[in-house]
């Protein structure tokens, strides 16, 4: 993979710690993580001290840091999976790669250990092709190209701003789906990276992602908080919401989103049936969220990521707000996030 | 050769025709025998009609040469290309079946990574008989596949999907590159087996390759016209592209799905890139205008059938693309002729009769 043009020092790996003992997690990732700087953000709800093994270059942020920077009256809640956004905020690197703390490196179909960081960076540093579908998938991969019939003027592609990876073993299914098939595990390794076409909406899973912080940082935002949000992915929609916003921004600004490789191995954790008993709200909300985002068109005059988010927040409040306070709170959080980003997220001095 | 271990009725045996355009011979059918023999073939013989094309024994087929095309369509035969594989769409026209699978005569059975031979026809049937999901992208690809599902966040109201109109397969070995790419990378072979089927999202166009393609004739047949190519025409190797752009726009309008990915076939023959370049070169710069045209087409909601959509498209082609070259006026007219021919050949009275035969043997 051509990574000669990326310096390890341009990358931060951000991990939201929802479990306190990260020893085995970090050891599984050691050969891949040890080259990079890590930002580990501890879930503010976690009481125990974090256990992190030796040999890594990392900074830890916890509740006290978050409170100091954000203040207590914020409409943004950094608990649970959303704690990682604090890491995105304080990073000063061009690229961020982020994994859930219940994922470890997977093996490909030939049995080799996959380096998902390298694959994400390859995805981000080769163009995306959102305006016309290439039937041989990513034309920039070794051994592939644009097919006959692909317009030449579109072959330069656009900057890829987001790379969405996938999961072997426990796939990112919602609670009802996994509960119906409790034994189902994902063993299908699909050897492709695909640009998600412009105007096609998709559910972005936060479990295994990477993005160009410089281009779209403000659009990855902790905004949608379910009333019953919990510490399992089955009990959240924060990443799905963030991803919808991000896709609209990318489509508007002419940036690309890729999906597919790399895979990580997601460990079994929790019970879909238990989560199902708790919470249907997310599933119901998606019925409104999807048509809303599918029809969202930002005015031409909106030209920066921050302004895109502000404009989207306004529309969310206006059109979705009336149907649920969850949306009003999300809109407020989006506006607050941009303010926070401008105050803390940009600029050169780290926290 | 793969053989079924017990007698299993092949799916859609009496509902699917296999359409094969050929100018050389049909030796390749020998390799496909276990998979194709139960099905009816429609052979469209291009080029010199006096040449005798041998069909291997044991296949049930109709064969049409240029004389047959002229006889069946009369003056409307001018919409069917000559000396180009675009003539295959004549086979779509005269078929009486619900489904079509079309394949080129230089395409062979591929093997999956485990070494098992791929039954491409069975995979296409599976693709066509399961819904598509064009309104929201599923990151795990085809959710109707065994062991796969919709991901978290996929709205339940969209999980029924829509009927699949087209199944677009891929190729191992010689990839479907245009002439310039072939010239730059003459040795590149596609060795990557991507184990996925996915729905192409609504509003997104794609380059449809006719080498390994299946479709539901009842849902989208009239849109699968492969244009005016070959002899007497300024362009070649854009027949399937043209059909794909028209068909996708119409599928999007009528909420029908288009899938791409599996199955793979083994494409054995690399055509001459210099010959290809001569055929394609107008297409290469015309497509810069053609693509934005298709991307901006909005079909009126009064167009509720494929034929109505297609006729509307033909008007827009003449209006918007006509200024680029007189070819598009001719093409627009040919599109109308095609629909007339389609309606004639597929009227209820026609469907009740025996198929109009070329040479039919068992």
Description:
The complex is a heterodimer of chains A (351) and B (362). By secondary structure, chain A is of the alpha/beta class. Chain A has two domains: 10-100; 102-345, no CATH class. Chain A is built from eleven helices and nine strands. In chain A, helix 7 crosses helix 10 and helix 10 packs antiparallel against helix 11. Chain B has 362 residues and is of the alpha/beta class. Chain B is built from eleven helices and ten strands. Chain B is globular. Mean pLDDT of chain B is 93; it is low at 354-362. Classes of the chains: A alpha/beta (351), B alpha/beta (362). At the A-B interface, helix 9 of A face helix 7 and helix 8 of B.
Task: Please outline what is shown here.
Chain A: This is UDP-arabinopyranose mutase 5. The complex is a heterodimer of chains A (351) and B (362). Chain A is α/β, with parallel strands linked by helices and 351 residues long.
Task: Give the secondary structure arrangement, pairings included.
The complex is a heterodimer of chains A (351) and B (362).
Chain A: E1 11-17, H1 23-33, E2 37-42, E3 57-61, H2 63-70, H3 83-90, E4 95-100, E5 103-105, H4 116-125, E6 160-169, H5 175-180, E7 193-195, E8 208-212, H6 213-216, H7 238-253, E9 256-266, H8 272-278, H9 281-294, H10 305-320, H11 325-345
Parallel strand pairs in A: 1-2, 1-4, 2-3, 6-9
Antiparallel strand pairs in A: 4-8, 5-9, 6-8, 7-9
Chain B: E1 16-22, H1 29-36, E2 40-45, E3 60-64, H2 66-73, H3 89-94, E4 99-103, E5 107-108, H4 120-129, E6 164-173, H5 179-184, E7 197-199, E8 212-216, H6 217-220, H7 239-254, E9 257-267, H8 273-296, H9 306-321, H10 327-345, H11 348-352, E10 359-361
Parallel strand pairs in B: 1-2, 1-4, 2-3, 6-9
Antiparallel strand pairs in B: 3-10, 4-8, 5-9, 6-8, 7-9
Helix pairs in contact in B: 7-9, 9-10
């Amino acid at each position: 993979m051509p990574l000669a043009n990326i310096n390890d020092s341009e990358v931060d790996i951000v991990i939201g710690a929802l479990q306190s003992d990260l020893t085995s997690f970090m050891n599984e990732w050691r050969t891949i993580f040890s080259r990079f700087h890590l930002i580990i953000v501890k879930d503010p709800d976690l009481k125990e001290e974090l256990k992190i093994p030796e040999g890594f270059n990392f900074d830890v942020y916890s509740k006290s840091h978050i409170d100091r920077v954000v203040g207590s009256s914020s409409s943004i809640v950094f608990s649970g999976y959303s704690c990682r956004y604090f890491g995105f905020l304080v990073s000063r690197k061009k690229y961020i790669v982020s994994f859930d703390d219940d994922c470890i490196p997977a093996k490909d179909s030939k049995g080799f250990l996959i380096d998902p960081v390298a694959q994400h960076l390859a995805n981000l540093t080769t163009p995306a092709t959102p305006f016309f579908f290439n039937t041989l998938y990513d034309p920039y991969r070794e051994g592939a190209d644009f097919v006959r019939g692909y317009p030449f003027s579109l072959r330069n592609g656009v900057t890829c701003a987001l790379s969405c990876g996938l999961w072997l073993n426990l796939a990112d299914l919602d609670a009802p789906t996994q509960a119906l098939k409790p034994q189902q595990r994902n063993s299908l390794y699909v050897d492709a990276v695909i640009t998600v076409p412009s105007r096609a909406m998709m559910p972005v899973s936060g479990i295994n992602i990477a993005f160009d912080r410089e281009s779209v940082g403000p659009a990855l935002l902790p905004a949608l908080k379910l009333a019953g949000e919990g510490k399992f992915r089955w009990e959240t929609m924060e990443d799905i919401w963030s991803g919808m916003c991000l896709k609209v921004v990318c489509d508007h600004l002419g940036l690309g989103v890729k999906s597919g490789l790399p895979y990580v191995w997601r460990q079994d954790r929790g019970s879909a049936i238990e989560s199902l008993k708790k919470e249907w709200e997310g599933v119901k909300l998606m019925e409104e969220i999807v048509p809303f985002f599918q029809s969202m068109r930002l005015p031409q005059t909106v030209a920066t990521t921050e302004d895109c988010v502000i404009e989207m927040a306004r529309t969310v409040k206006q059109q979705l707000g009336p149907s649920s306070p969850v949306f009003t709170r999300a809109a407020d959080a989006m506006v607050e996030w941009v303010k926070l980003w401008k105050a803390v997220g940009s600029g050169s001095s780290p926290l | 050769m793969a053989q079924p271990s017990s007698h299993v009725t092949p799916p859609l045996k009496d509902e699917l025709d296999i359409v094969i355009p050929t100018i050389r011979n049909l030796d390749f059918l020998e390799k496909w025998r276990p998979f194709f023999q139960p099905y009816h073939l429609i052979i469209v013989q291009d080029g010199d009609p006096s040449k005798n094309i041998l069909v291997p024994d044991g296949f049930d087929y109709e064969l049409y040469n240029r004389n047959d095309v002229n006889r069946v369509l009369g003056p409307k035969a001018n919409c069917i290309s000559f000396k180009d594989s675009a003539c295959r769409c004549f086979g779509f026209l005269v078929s009486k079946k619900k489904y079509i699978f079309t394949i080129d005569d230089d395409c062979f059975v591929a093997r999956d990574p485990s070494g098992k031979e791929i039954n491409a026809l069975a995979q296409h049937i599976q693709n066509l008989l399961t819904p598509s999901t064009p309104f929201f992208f599923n990151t795990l690809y085809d959710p109707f596949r065994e062991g796969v599902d919709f991901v978290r966040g996929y709205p339940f109201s969209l999980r029924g999907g829509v009927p699949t109109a087209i199944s677009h397969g891929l190729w191992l070995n010689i990839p479907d590159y245009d002439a310039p790419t072939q010239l730059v990378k003459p040795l590149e072979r596609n060795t990557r087996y991507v184990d996925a089927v996915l729905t192409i999202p609504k509003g997104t166009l794609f380059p449809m390759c006719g080498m390994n393609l299946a479709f539901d004739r009842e849902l989208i047949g009239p849109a699968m016209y492969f244009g005016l190519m070959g002899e007497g025409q300024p362009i070649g190797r854009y027949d399937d592209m043209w059909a794909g752009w028209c068909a996708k726009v119409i599928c999007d309008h009528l909420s029908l799905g288009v899938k791409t990915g599996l199955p793979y076939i083994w494409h054995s023959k690399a055509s001459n890139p210099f010959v290809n370049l001569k055929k394609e070169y107008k297409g290469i710069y015309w497509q810069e205008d053609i693509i934005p045209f298709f991307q901006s087409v909005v079909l009126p909601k009064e167009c509720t059938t494929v034929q109505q959509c297609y006729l509307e498209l033909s008007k827009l082609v003449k209006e918007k693309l006509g200024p680029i070259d007189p070819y598009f006026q001719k093409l627009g007219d040919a599109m109308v002729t095609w629909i007339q021919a389609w309606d004639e050949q597929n009227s209820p009275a026609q469907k009740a009769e025996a198929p109009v035969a070329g040479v039919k043997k068992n």
